[in-house]
Amino acid sequence: MKCSPGDTGLFSFSSGQTQGNSVTQTEGQVTLSEKASLTINCTYSTTGSPTLFWYVQYPGEGLQLLLRAFSDKKESNKGFEATLDSKSKSFHLEKGSVQASDSAVYYCAMNDTVTGTAGGAERKL
């Protein structure tokens, strides 16, 4: 898939909840141009000390773990960064310059499951 400057990408968001714990992405839809910066906001609610995950699913492929954090620190992989902040209960995914190769579905998940506790974001170029 190729994307030329000025082409746009569309992100859509969803949320989920299970067993009193939840992971939420609050945005509706966001349109981005190639090389624009990306932030996908993920907040969570739990009474414990969770591990947070960002998973990515590229077209025609299975889920892949992108980032994981279990304490307040910044994690990075493939140009993406996410900081787990237990005070604000957030684990936002960021990238300074998105490319066509970033086209995928992104899931924020808590503990060791995606099913039922994931919020997702989809980018199409």
Percent strand: over 45%
First-last Cα distance: 8 Å
CATH topological fold name: Immunoglobulin-like
The CATH superfamily name is Immunoglobulins
| Integer count of domains | 1
Helix content: under 10%
- Given helix and strand content, the structural type is mainly beta
Mean pLDDT, to the nearest integer, reads: 73
Give the count of helical stretches: 0
Order of helices and strands: EEEEEEEEEEEEE
Strand order of the largest sheet: 4-1-13-12-7-8
Q: Spans of 5+ residues with little confidence (pLDDT < 50)?
A: 1-19, 112-125
Can you tell me the CATH architecture? Sandwich
The main β sheet shows up as: 6 strands, antiparallel
Task: Using the alpha-carbon principal axes, give the shape.
Answer: globular
The total of beta strands comes to: 13
Mind telling me the CATH class?
A: Mainly Beta
The whole-angstrom Rg is 14 Å
Keywords: Adaptive immunity, Immunity, Immunoglobulin domain, Receptor, Signal, T cell receptor
Region (Disordered): 1-28
GO cellular component, one term: T cell receptor complex
Domain Ig-like: 5-125
Topology (SSEs and partners):
Layout: E1 8-13, E2 16-18, E3 21-24, E4 29-33, E5 38-40, E6 43-45, E7 52-57, E8 63-69, E9 74-77, E10 80-85, E11 90-95, E12 105-110, E13 119-124
Antiparallel strand pairs: 1-4, 1-13, 2-3, 3-6, 5-11, 7-8, 7-12, 9-10, 10-11, 12-13
